[in-house]
């Protein structure tokens, strides 16, 4: 089954304060606005690419951002793929995956773009990747 997906780059929603620290409130607001955009409404999955994001974003900040997407879950079908670098960033994405698999959508962390898009286009859930 062919599935459409929307790629959201970290630079599209990660906002910083003048001090360089994450502006969590502004980032959540922009992410919510992106989710509400007309092109996301309908039969789409979401791919969040954070490979180019650098900074001191902690687990709680990342979790808040995923929860913001969850508040707009009507804007996508059921899956969010997070593509991260293969370093501490991926570990944070896996933490998100464990914490955010709630309600009506599933978050899955990847370091490979092709694997992420294949998962988004499949009928598989997180359980199928573990077998």
What does this structure look like?
By secondary structure, the chain is α/β, with parallel strands linked by helices. Helices cover about 45% and strands about 15% of the residues. Strands 1-2-3-4 form a 4-stranded parallel β-sheet. The longest helix has 13 residues, at about 25-35. The model is unreliable at about 125-130 (pLDDT under 50).
Secondary structure elements and their pairing?
Elements: E1 4-9, H1 10-13, H2 24-36, E2 44-49, H3 59-71, E3 79-83, H4 88-100, E4 106-110, H5 113-121, H6 126-129
Parallel strand pairs: 1-2, 2-3, 3-4
Helix pairs in contact: 2-3, 3-4
In short:
This protein is 43% helix and 17% strand. The chain has 131 residues and is α/β, with parallel strands linked by helices.
Q: What value does the average pLDDT take?
A: 79
Strand content: 15-25%
Continuous helix count: 6
Order of helices and strands: EHHEHEHEHH
What characterizes the major β-sheet?
Answer: 4 strands, parallel
Tell me the distance between the termini: 21 Å
User: Uncertain runs with pLDDT below 50, 5 residues or more?
Assistant: 126-131
- Lateral arrangement of strands in the main beta sheet: 1-2-3-4
General shape: globular
Helix-and-strand structural type: alpha/beta
Spatial extent as radius of gyration: 14 Å
For the secondary structure, the number of strands is 4
Helix content: 40-55%
